[in-house]
């Protein structure tokens, strides 16, 4: 056999280095594809988180303006329930007076824009403690139908409930509109008439 048939050492070294470079390039392309996918997934997660934060901020825009606190801290003056800066009312307003000796709930219903003053329950005047011992929580429904609760420490949370009052569709159903709390309007059954 002729020793030149298999080529010389330089040819073998060049072929080996070329093959190694080809394998390294293939590995680098696969790895960069994996890294690109990881970065795209991170971008999607960040975009979703940002969109969720924007949506939560938009959702809470009106609710952020509703609060209850003592208006006059001297001698249990009137309680101020304020819809500050909003030109829209809130509905199904319920105040919860929390004190050392108990809890009392008062339903207000509709709260128009502006400041509304309400008296403290009598038992809070008669009980022991100072005004600092008493707090007010409230729950309400905004104009989009979302039900909110601001606890006695002022923390606002969406309850996850959305109430859709149903429009009246005929004169035969002129009673109280049906309310759905499932997140979707309830279908009316016009065949019952």
Automatic annotation (TrEMBL):
Entry's transmembrane regions: 12-29
UniProt feature, compositional bias: Polar residues: 171-185
Q: Where is this region: Disordered?
A: 171-193
Key words, A-Z:
Membrane, Transmembrane, Transmembrane helix
Q: What is this protein called?
A: Uncharacterized protein
The species this protein was found in: Nocardioides furvisabuli
């Amino acid at each position: 056999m002729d020793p030149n048939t298999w080529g010389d050492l330089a040819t073998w070294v060049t072929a080996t280095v070329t093959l190694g470079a080809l394998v390294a390039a293939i590995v680098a392309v696969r790895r960069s594809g994996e890294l690109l996918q990881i970065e795209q997934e991170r971008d999607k997660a960040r975009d979703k988180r940002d969109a969720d934060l924007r949506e939560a901020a938009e959702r809470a825009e009106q609710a952020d303006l509703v609060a209850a606190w003592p208006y006059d801290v001297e001698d249990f003056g009137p309680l101020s329930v304020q819809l500050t800066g909003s030109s829209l009312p809130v509905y199904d307003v319920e105040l919860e007076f929390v004190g050392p000796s108990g809890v009392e709930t008062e339903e207000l219903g509709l709260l128009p824009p502006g400041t509304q003053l309400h008296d403290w329950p009598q038992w809070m005047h008669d009980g022991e403690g100072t005004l600092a011992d008493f707090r007010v929580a409230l729950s309400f429904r905004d104009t989009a139908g979302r039900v909110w609760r601001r606890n006695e420490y002022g923390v606002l949370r969406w309850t996850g409930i959305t109430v859709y009052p149903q429009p009246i569709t005929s004169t035969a159903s002129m009673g109280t509109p049906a309310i759905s709390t499932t997140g979707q309007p309830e279908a009316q059954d016009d065949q019952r008439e």
